[in-house]
Write a structure and sequence with these properties.
Length: 253
């Protein structure tokens, strides 16, 4: 069962806010009033609402419009992000959206090539994915033998000295933005082909190129499904292992 935390948080905030408003405007429970005149259950409800409403509202605003925590569930973004990384996602990077409905209220920016973004899976919006933006609206993307060609320009790719992974690590240059990718088999790549990015969409790929279910499989992502930009790692923890303190605070490139 999938729990919609945004919906639960919104409902609790609205409910407690309504109780506080009614208390102030109708029941008029001021410091001079005697709460003993109210039924015990009602008095308890009002007290809890007055206590929790500011906290719930604060969390709702932070989570909906500023930062949202996200846990990396798989290795599709290795070596940039590892399974077990906990990251902050900047919700305001690509527009301020209403909680639950995700309707955009204010335009604040658009994804740039190389951004690491979190988005809702178009076929199941309750599921969040994290990938890197490769193609912008109108781009032509050619992926062949581990090499990206964007609008006729082949992106530079060179092998890195990183030996901490079993597969080769390469440094890819996306129009001046350098980042590492993992190549399981340099002689073979998954889903070679040519892709055109429709207007209002973004072509995304995982940095673990041969182990990523991305736009080569699910298609380009419409901007309405964007959640935000991945910002920093705030924890790395895998059950039964000690936390990797060295990853804490890393900026996601």
């Amino acid at each position: 069962m999938i729990i919609n935390l945004a919906l639960i948080l919104t409902v609790l905030t609205l409910f407690s806010g309504v109780i506080v408003a009614i208390d102030r405007m109708v029941w008029k429970t001021t410091e001079d009033d005697s709460r003993d005149a109210q039924p015990g259950a009602l008095r308890t409800l009002v007290e809890y609402s007055r206590s929790f409403f500011p906290v719930l509202l604060f969390v709702l605003v932070i989570r909906s419009f500023i930062f949202e925590p996200f846990r990396i569930p798989s290795g599709s973004m290795m070596p940039t992000l590892l399974k077990g990384d906990f990251i902050f996602v900047k919700k305001f990077s690509y527009g301020l959206r209403l909680p639950v409905t995700e309707s955009k209220m204010i335009e604040t920016g658009e994804p740039e090539r190389g951004d690491v973004i979190v988005f809702r899976l178009p076929t199941d919006p309750s599921v969040n994915y994290i990938k890197r933006v490769i193609g912008l609206p109108g781009d032509e993307i050619v992926y062949e033998r581990q090499r990206l060609t964007i609008n006729g320009k082949t992106m530079d790719l060179r092998q890195a000295a990183d030996a901490s992974f079993s597969a080769p690590v390469f440094v890819e240059d996306l129009d001046g933005r350098l980042h590492d990718i993992l190549v399981t088999n340099p002689q073979f790549s998954t889903r070679d082909g040519t892709y055109r990015v429709p207007e209002g969409h973004y072509f995304v790929m995982g940095d673990n190129r041969d182990r990523s279910r991305d736009s080569r499989f699910i298609g380009s992502i419409h901007e309405k499904y964007l959640v935000g930009e991945a910002s920093r790692i705030w924890m790395h923890f895998v059950p039964w292992n000690m936390p990797d303190w060295g990853r804490i605070g890393r900026k996601i490139q």
